[in-house]
Amino acid sequence: MKLLVLGATGLTGRHVVDAALRSGDSVTAFVRNPAALADLADRVTLATGDATSLQDLSATLPGHDAVISALGAGNSLTSIRADDLFTRSSTALVAAAKETDVSRLVWLSSFGVGHTLAWSSIPQKMIYRTLLRNIYANKATADESIRSSGLDWTVVLPTRLTNDPAKGTYSMGDRLPMKGNPTISRADVAAFMHKAVHGSEWIHRSPVISD
């Protein structure tokens, strides 16, 4: 499969790239700074661009079988505001995908966004409604634009992400019971996203995943 990976230099995106390469996929890493993936220069195609730009995405998408978006706002306290990253990128990506006839999309969001807030535990709700309020509102709008796009989408909703090694086992479903503030490693999330893009089980679904 020929995959376009958005957010390829991010903490989760790099795991997606690695998983795809291990499986033998052809990978195009869509990045702002190609130097960040210099160690993979001979194994991936590097495409420089802005994930919120319809022009940049439309120029890169043709010839790909699917897109995995692992875009994120980063880990620092200064990144708890989305600055419309997710709404702008989802709008551009949906338009570019339709323009270039690339229908398969796996999109990384977060548990607690949109309707899943109602399923959250009390500790999760406290975090989602305060510290992450802005970024989750932006993600909710973006997720709905993906779901209403007409594409073959999957919106992935992981619990709190960690940098722990992959376990290879995790819970997944349209809804999961929550206690406390559960986590899942970025490596396991990436493995799930890569598996999902290769199958049809999760098309038009929003799986929640957690340890």
TrEMBL record:
Can you tell which superkingdom this protein's organism belongs to? Bacteria
User: What sequence ranges are listed for the domain NAD(P)-binding?
Assistant: 7-197
Family annotation (InterPro entries): NAD(P)-bd_dom (IPR016040), NAD(P)-bd_dom_sf (IPR036291), Polyketide_Oxido-like (IPR051606)
Q: What is the name listed in the Swiss-Prot or TrEMBL entry for this protein?
A: SDR family oxidoreductase
